[in-house]
Specification:
The chain contains 6 helices and 2 strands. By secondary structure, the protein is an all-alpha fold.
């Protein structure tokens, strides 16, 4: 019978800047900063852009679903939706057909704004993937998904 040997720690305990969580947060902060910069030029925030992307794929999503998908609170999600509606980029019914959900949809202007900013945001993502050998990108995406799933359990 083989003796079980505990795995080596994934990071040196005395240097937080080498911890996986720290490095993930650093990458997330860099991504957010780069996205903020390009989106600001188009009058959008990251949550607004994410909301437009999601509504393009899934018209009629509720505030609660959009908030979860864009990593903001429902209250913040409602502020995002009101801002997009005030800007003429989405529409929502004045009242809910049932319950409290008021499904949101992109307007023609919202679709046009999204199309305009997508290239700039995709260029930011391309900068990230260009930093890696192509063969490692798929593995990284898989690993990030596994990490998220492990923490959501």
């Amino acid at each position: 019978m083989k003796e079980s040997v505990p795995p080596e720690p994934s990071h040196p305990a005395d240097d937080i800047t080498h911890h996986l969580g720290y490095l993930l947060k650093r990458a997330q902060a860099a991504l957010r900063g780069a996205m903020d910069k390009v989106l600001r030029e188009h009058g959008l925030t990251v949550p607004q852009y994410s909301t437009l992307e999601l509504l393009a794929l899934h018209p009629g999503m509720s505030n609660a679903d959009l908030a979860r998908a864009t990593f903001v609170t429902r209250q913040s999600g409602n502020v995002v939706l009101r801002g997009l509606q005030d800007a003429g980029l989405i529409t929502r019914p004045a009242t809910a057909d049932h319950g409290r959900a008021r499904p949101a949809r992109l307007t023609d202007e919202g679709r046009a704004r999204l199309a305009t900013v997508q290239a700039a945001v995709h260029a930011v993502e391309q900068r990230m993937t260009d930093a890696l050998p192509p063969r490692r990108v798929t593995a990284l995406l898989t690993d990030l998904d596994l990490i998220a799933a492990a923490l959501e359990e």
